[in-house]
Structure formats: C-alpha cells, structure tokens
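To assess whether ligand presence alters the predicted conformation, the chain was also submitted together with NDP. Input:
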Amino acid sequence: MTQDRSRPRLTTTAGAPIASNQHSETAGDRGPVLMQDYQLLEKLAHQNRERIPERVVHAKGWGAFGTFTVTQDITRYSCASIFGQVGKATPMLARFSTVAGEMGAADHERDVRGFALKFYTDEGNWDLVGNNTPVFFVRDPLKFPDFIHTQKRHPRTNLRSATAMWDFWGQVPESLHQVTILMSDRGLPQDPTFMDGFGSHTYSFWNTDGERFWVKFHFKTQQGHRHYTNAQAAEIIGHTREGYQEALFGKIDRGEFPRWKMFVQIMPELDAEKTPYDPFDLTKVWPHGDYPLIEVGEFELNRNADNYFAQIEQAAFSPSNKVRGIGYSPDKMLQARVFSYADAHRYRLGTHYEHLPVNAPKCPVHHYHKDGQMNFYGQVTGSTDAYYEPNSRGGAVEDPSFTEPPLRLAGVAARQPHRQLIDDYEQPRALHDRVLSDEERARLYRNIAAAMEGADEDVVDRVLVHFDRISPAYGAGIRAARAEKAAHRHAAE
Ligand code: NDP
Ligand code: HEM
C-alpha cells in the first residue's frame, strides 16, 4: 500500500513511523502473535488505561465554554478583578451535572443539578461550584458522605433504595427544604439551559477598604424555566439517555447561545448577628424581601468542547479556587468543600491536574511545588536557581496587597450543632404555601408519592410527620397522592 502524502504519518507514541496498522505481527499467517509486536502491546495497554475514576458524585455531566460580562458596578462590595469595570469580559467554563447517577445514567432523571462555573480571571481561576437549588440537604459536612450513600446503590441489592433515602430524610428534617425543591417541577428541567444556578453557600466579598460583606450568588436563566413531568421524562429516556448532551451541544453548535444573568444578595457583615435565621446555614435561603437581588453581569455559553474527555471530564472545579475580593464564610459545609474537591482531583486526575489545559489559569502562575508524577511543565518560578523561598535569585515573591481582611470569629471550639434560629419547617412552608400554585403543589405530591414507592412503611410514616409540620396540607396532599397511586395499582392487578 502506498502512503497518501497529504495525510500525516501514523507513528508509535515514541514517534516511530508505523508500516501497518491492520495486521498484528505473527509467526505464520495463522499466528500466534509475537511478543515483540510492541505496536500491538502499546495499543492494548493504552486502551486499558482509557477510563479514569468517575466523579464520586456528579459523574454525569454536560459542559461548554463561554464568556462572563459585567453589566453593573459592584466594586463597592468586591475588589475581585473579574468585576473591575462594567463591560469587562472573562472567559469561563460551565459544567452541569446530575448528582447521584453514574456516568452512563440517563440525563432526564429527577435529581438536583450541579451548576459548576470556572472563571479564568486575570488574577487566577475563580470556581463557583453550585447547584440549581439555593439550599442543600444537610448543613454539617459530617453528614455528607452518609447522605450520598443513601443516593447511591444498596450494597447488597446493588439497586437504589427508596427506604434509605426516606429513612435519612426523615431523621434529618432540615433536608426537607431541598427535598421539596427536588420533588417540585424544578427537579426535572427539560435541559440545562432551562434552570437557574446558585452558589448556594454564603460566601463573602471584600473591598479595597477592607470591608467584608456576606454574599449569595444567583444565576437566572434567560431561556425561562421549562420542566418535564416524570411521565414525560420516562418517555424521553425510552428514546435517548443523552437528552441534555444533545440539547446543550446542539444549541451551541447551531449558534443558539444560552445566557444567564448573575445577581448577588449582599448582607453587611454585622447583619449576620441580627437575622432571624442563621445566614450560614446551607439549608436556608435569605428571603428576597430582606436582601434583594442585585444585578452583576451575564454569561453566555458559546463554544462546545473540542474533546469531551480533555475539557469536560478532566475539568476540576473546586471551592478552594477563589480570588482576591472573594472569601469564604463560617458555613461548615463550605469549609469542608474547600478540602474535599482538590483532594478528589488529585485522586481522580493526578497531582498536576491544575496544569491540564482546561484547568490551567490564563494568567501567570509561579509556585515552588516540585516534581511529582507526570510533571510535564518543569519549574514555574521563572528562575532555575530559585527553587526555594525565600531566595535572592529572582524567584517569585508574595504580594501583601492581596491580604484578605481578618474574619471575625467568636465562640468555643467543640462539636456543636448548628445555631437554630428558625425551625427547619418555616422556609419549605413558604415555598409550599405561598410560592407554588395549586397545579405545582399537585405535581409535587405526586412526585413525592412516586419517589416513596418501595420504601418501608415505618420510614414513610416517620417522614410524613415532618411534612405535616411543614404544612398540614402538604402531608395530606402526599397521603392522598399515595392513596391514588395504590388505587391505580390495585385496579391494574
Ligand atoms: P420570593 O417570593 O421572593 O421568591 C420565590 C422564589 O422561589 C423565586 O426565586 C422563585 O424563582 C423560586 N421558585 C419558584 N418555584 C420554585 C420551585 N419549584 N422550587 C424552588 N424555587 C422556586 O420568596 P422568598 O425569597 O421570600 O422565599 C420564599 C421561598 O422561596 C423560600 O423559602 C425558598 O423555599 C424559595 N426560594 C427562595 C430563594 C431565595 O433566594 N430567597 C431562591 C429560590 C427559592 P424564580 O424567580 O426563578 O421563578
Ligand atoms: C462534585 C464533595 C457539597 C456541588 C463533588 C465531588 C466531590 C464533592 C468529592 C467530585 C469532585 C471531582 O471529582 O471533580 C462534596 C462535599 C460536600 C459537597 C464533601 C459537602 C460537605 C456540595 C454542595 C454543592 C455541591 C453543597 C452545591 C451547592 C457539586 C458540583 C459538583 C460536585 C456541582 C460537580 C462539579 C463538576 O462539574 O465537576 N462534590 N460536595 N457539592 N459537587 Fe460537591
């Protein structure tokens, strides 16, 4: 066979040209294969290493690149360079995900959706790793692994367990705010462009005068909210398990770029002592009436990844990636996440995951970390003789102008329950009684009844007591929906 000179020449990974990629090297035309056929060995060895561990949660995801643009001046709250001037544009990456399903899970399953954003700012990467919900199931990180176990497969049956989910939720009533959102229409968006995003935690902003403000981030979809019912989703899953990938990739490919407006709620630092709810409790929102949304900017997703694995699967989002002008808060969950993500990345991707192109900052990087597996970048301090610090050989040095103002803390060190100012029922009550319409409430009851299918009765009875406490109508609605389901089942038997 002659070579087509217009096409690049196939080589081994060591660069040696390959004469045949069709036939293994054998003794005789029937084989066996020779041990010396390194080309075959290399191909098989690479195939064996094509998979990396999937994310322990949020394994199934869809992402794209885009641009964030500032539309309003918030420099009085934050000196983050991303917010420096109105009109300033910053490149970014978004990855949306479901939480519980594995990488092959169907996209249209009812679940909380991840809403992870990486802003490649000129002062380092800022990651906001949020969800499409403003609250979370638990407010203490010690409970997170247990909660996730209830969402994953039962060790013996290898099936997901309704009993485990409702058993946990029934014993951790602060979770019922998030459960209400999950079981409402917003728990099953038609595709990722039809949902809001939230930073969920309370973070902080600080300005050049050293003032700190507590902040919550909101991203409002500009496509509007659109959702499927369970029945519609089941029908879609019957046709495709990849509906979100098809929708997001397809829209961006066709030039229909989805957009979200960024808003913040701002709380002056000392207000945190006065609010009737604990502003650092991740199971609570700040009511809009108390802290209205302030517009900041808008992002648009306008570029698909060229390679899903390299740019979406290997993307590493972490709450530990923060920049000047943005800080943490006492939120216990947030504190734990600062550890957990980079640890997960070192396991999932390797020591130098931040040097993978999708994770690499688009600003100068100088540090003194050395060596390690797969170190393909050499030294990043800028001078070969300056491989330690302090040094007098021109290596990178600290810049005190980036000092964060001190965080005021008080109290004793102990294993302490979250400060309870309002009960766990008040905010889901507001959502159930005031925000949802009659039709939305009816769908909520049906979705909960469906999710309770197969759960042990004692577990259901226990959790229903909590729904009654949120609102007697809520508990009654779920019981009626369960009775209706049971009647249908009996009629069908
Ligand atoms: P508001 O009446 O000012 O706002 C209600 C909020 O609820 C809006 O953000 C609305 O989103 C959102 N919403 C509507 N339907 C659903 C749903 N099915 N699931 C989740 N959110 C939904 O209310 P308050 O600020 O006084 O809060 C009342 C309750 O609303 C809270 O207890 C909380 O449960 C819920 N909520 C509050 C948020 C907040 O940050 N304050 C954020 C989201 C929910 P949209 O405007 O996009 O329609
Ligand atoms: C992914 C831990 C709470 C949103 C992950 C991953 C871990 C993790 C280990 C996988 C990371 C990776 O391999 O790349 C935790 C812990 C939590 C917590 C320990 C609580 C203590 C939350 C909360 C939110 C959230 C409260 C949202 C507000 C996400 C998202 C992803 C993720 C969006 C996927 C990020 C991506 O697209 O790559 N979490 N999580 N998590 N988590 Fe959490």
